[in-house]
Amino acid sequence: MTDITLRDDLVQRLQEIARQEKRQPDEVLEILLNQYNPSTPTDRALDDELWKDTLRIYDRARRYWQAQNDPRWQMTNDELDQQFWLINSSGIQHLKDEQSTLTLPPDPLEQMLNIAEADTTILWKSPARLHNFPPNQS
To answer: In terms of pTM, does the model score above 0.70?
Structure first.
């Protein structure tokens, strides 16, 4: 084991995260380091926004489960990263292990894509058809 000196505020943050995640501080630090991926500032800003959105979804799921007296409300962010699936159109939160037990309503976007794929009059959808479009005007 090697000693390292960190600022007090960083140690406090690390300990707080470890407490919230019910982990040892070195586990939290290892997870953070494993997730570290040098990126451009734009990528980092986008990642931050996506993470904020993810946390808002997790908070919504926890509030729902807590209101239902469901023990899943106590899941950590790490557990939800591994197990969370979706919030259905009725506002019910679901985990990945529920995928085989649920039948979701048809996705309107998928239905539109299926209609477009079945339409033989659409010339732009097939790369093979692009060679003959537009038709020669000779």
So the answer is: no
